[in-house]
């Protein structure tokens, strides 16, 4: 596994740099924008995730000899371009929606201000990370609403690529999940990990009782026993007999959950295990979680559906050149013309508007001088908040967005931002975005 | 990025090893099976992909000090277990469907014969890799049929996690795609890479003509020019004016493709560019590819849909203990009892049955002594072929399945195996598997 991220890139980004260097246009100041034309799955809002990972990946976006050798051998770019790549280090400025923030159609989630060549090189990597991480976080955030305050653990590593699994654990945690099954996510990102035993462990032993005894000997009576390998009711009885009423929890991974959960709760109470919790893990998604929220379930383990974005495994984000300096050094706004893929050219800044109770009412996108200033007309828009923040300034990643601190900040930010959304944002049905995007 | 793959693993695999070591059951000889209960998306067949990557990952599945330190600090396992993990190296035997092979519900794609502890540790990693890579390969194989012989390039890196993108390029190539946009896949796996320019390149320049001139100066007249940034017809005219009739190809990324493609072909021919090819790339999937197969398109670029498995981003494969030695050293077949997640316990071998014209007719799964022998009753089944092959023997990865040689073999194997399937396998509608799975 190479630590350079530079080849996690589409071939054409390199040939564009090659052609632009030769044409003398590679160094034109340019603005690229990463955004989603619409919210995948007709979700009510999107959740930005992956920004911290992207910033870490940009710091490792260097063409060292192994990368250059591949490009040279394959004759992908000219020798002059190889020399330029050898010295490449992103030196531009990146504004963006801070990680954990919510977003809407057209929201400029990442704004890259740099030379054309620097900006275009980041396209593939930025989209890979944001598209997949945000898809997971957006699904996870819906599940968090559906669970109505009960904790959720992400346990879908086995249903997505082995490295995407680590990223998915991180994204779900930012969106409010409490823990993950993925150990690498625990090590890399400090996310709490959890898990006790699978059916195979019970099946390995002569009897369910022996399996439970073995697990308790290793993990203590506070552990979670999986009770549905054979007969669930018998499993619960055996679990409490072996562990005593201080048994931490039982896990149920099959059956008609609302019915089974009610019966297991009743049985646990009858057996005196009134403090023993119930966790369920049977192919849950936001809809089944919502259906169980009022049942005596204590926590949820969600696998497949969260790591594959619950029907929307990618956010459909794109990365477009919106402005550049021309040969005369003047800024030009640009956009592709084709109807169904129209984008809005020009530099932008963003304010989120609120009513006087603090509920978000609109995503205001101001065309003009770009982020950082006071956009024209902003004073007329009522109560507003600046959304964009500087993430990289002249090639230097700004503190606070990366590592464990970035994740913690993103998690709190997500909690705060979703609380500000109108109630319709919590709807699990397909529909319009919770607030409109307005261009000013 | 750590090169050890050992923590790409669910927490509970480690706690099960911990409890089983303490209980004295960890070393019981066991058989785990990786299979899909059904074909995701009601596909007609599945395509095995990821096997070579899994074998490479198993060779790097070692607990070195950084991994042990994490487990120690988090108190995930006992000190005795840490000592055991420090010496861990998979020493068992793995049989499996060779990469590129097709599969059906219940097909035992990977059979791990080892101690319980060794087998359980590989669960998460094996599922992560096979579930995601096979989902991509299965979708890609359908697109290959849909394209009716015209070449397909995978260009979806931006729509999936940055490392899953590399694996997806590999899986699509095995399933018959000709090339990828992903440079890391080119470097790691020797897959041909391709790409020329995006809309941003045209927009950077004062005019479309200047952009085309710049691209041709760098890449030659054999390049592919993207002609739909402004007006497609004008784009085609300008492209041929600038490049001459020897222009390699034009790419179209928007519009009503069947109509546009026909018009562009006519125009190219009128302009004398009769050898200039047409490639299309507008959010294609197997259905839109099929709709264009009879049009004068020369090649397809497929992005999002192939890397996210075209509606089925994961294959739903599971990894189950099917047999183990008990305390008395006797083999016991085991399976979880719950109805909707039933699996078939016991050791298995597999033969694919054929009619006398060489068309596959059934997937025969023999319960008994496991792979490698002559299963009882096999001689009665007519023309059959052994499907399982030894992938790892006593901890040693067998040659031919990994690296570039493994990929080349998998690609040929896939081509041969799909050719043997009944014609219904090529149907793009949802339905029953192309051949039934029969247990003997």
Task: Explain what the structure shows.
The structure is a homodimer of 440-residue chains. The first copy, chain A, has 440 residues and is of the alpha/beta class. The first copy, chain A, folds into 2 domains: 11-136 and 312-439, nicotinate phosphoribosyltransferase (Alpha-Beta Barrel), CATH 3.20.140; 140-307, Aldolase class I (TIM Barrel), CATH 3.20.20.70. Chain A has helices spanning 11-23, 51-59, 65-73, 79-86, 116-121, 123-146, 162-174, 183-189, 199-204, 208-219, 232-243, 257-270, 286-292, 304-307, 403-419, and strands at residues 29-36, 46-47, 93-96, 102-103, 110-115, 152-154, 179-180, 224-226, 249-252, 277-280, 299-302, 317-325, 331-333, 348-354, 360-367, 383-386, 389-393, 396-397, 437-439. Chain A has a 7-stranded antiparallel beta sheet with strand order 13-12-1-5-3-17-18. A 6-stranded parallel beta sheet of chain A has the order 7-6-11-10-9-8. The longest helix of chain A has 24 residues, at 123-146. Chain A starts with 10 loop residues before the first helix and ends with a strand. In chain A, 59% of the residues are buried. The mean pLDDT of chain A is 95.
């Amino acid at each position: 596994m190479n630590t350079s991220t530079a080849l996690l890139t589409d071939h054409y980004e390199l040939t564009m740099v090659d052609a632009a260097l030769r044409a003398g246009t590679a160094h034109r100041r340019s603005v690229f924008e990463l955004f989603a034309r619409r919210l995948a799955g007709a979700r009510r809002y999107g959740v930005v995730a992956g920004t911290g990972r992207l910033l870490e990946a940009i710091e490792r976006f260097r063409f060292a000899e192994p990368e250059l050798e591949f490009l040279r051998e394959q004759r992908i770019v000219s020798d002059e371009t190889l020399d330029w790549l050898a010295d490449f280090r992103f030196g531009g400025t990146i504004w963006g929606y801070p990680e954990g923030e919510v977003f809407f159609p057209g929201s400029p989630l990442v704004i890259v201000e740099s030379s054309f060549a620097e900006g275009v090189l980041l396209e593939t990597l930025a989209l890979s990370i944001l598209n997949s991480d945000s898809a997971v976080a957006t699904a996870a955030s819906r599940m968090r609403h559906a669970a109505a305050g009960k904790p959720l653990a992400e346990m879908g590593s086995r249903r997505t690529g082995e490295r995407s699994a680590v990223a998915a654990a991180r994204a779900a945690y930012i969106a409010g999940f409490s823990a993950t099954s993925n150990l690498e996510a625990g090590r890399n990102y400090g996310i709490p990990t959890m898990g006790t035993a699978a059916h195979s462990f019970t099946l390995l032993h002569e009897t369910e009782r022996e399996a439970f005894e073995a697990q308790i000997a290793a993990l203590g009576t506070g552990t979670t026993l999986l009770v549905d390998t054979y007969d669930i009711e018998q499993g619960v009885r055996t679990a409490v007999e072996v562990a005593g009423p201080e048994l931490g929890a039982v896990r149920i991974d099959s059956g008609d959950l609302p019915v089974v959960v009610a019966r297991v709760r009743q049985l646990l109470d009858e057996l005196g295990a009134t403090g023993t919790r119930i966790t369920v893990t049977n192919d849950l998604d936001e809809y089944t979680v919502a259906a169980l929220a009022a049942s005596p379930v204590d926590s949820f383990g969600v696998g497949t559906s969260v790591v594959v974005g619950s029907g929307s495994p990618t956010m459909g984000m794109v990365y477009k050149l919106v402005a550049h300096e021309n040969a005369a050094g003047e800024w030009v706004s640009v956009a592709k013309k084709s109807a169904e893929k129209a984008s809005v050219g020009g530099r932008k800044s963003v304010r989120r508007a609120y009513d006087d109770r603090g509920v978000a009412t609109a995503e205001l996108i101001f065309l003009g001088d770009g982020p950082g200033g006071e956009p024209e007309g902003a004073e007329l828009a009522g109560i507003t908040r600046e959304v964009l923040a500087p993430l990289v300034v002249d090639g230097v990643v700004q503190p606070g967005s990366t590592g464990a601190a970035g994740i913690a900040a993103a998690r709190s930010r997500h909690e705060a931002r979703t609380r500000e959304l109108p109630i319709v944002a919590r709807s699990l049905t397909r529909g319009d975005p919770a607030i409109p995007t307005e261009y000013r």
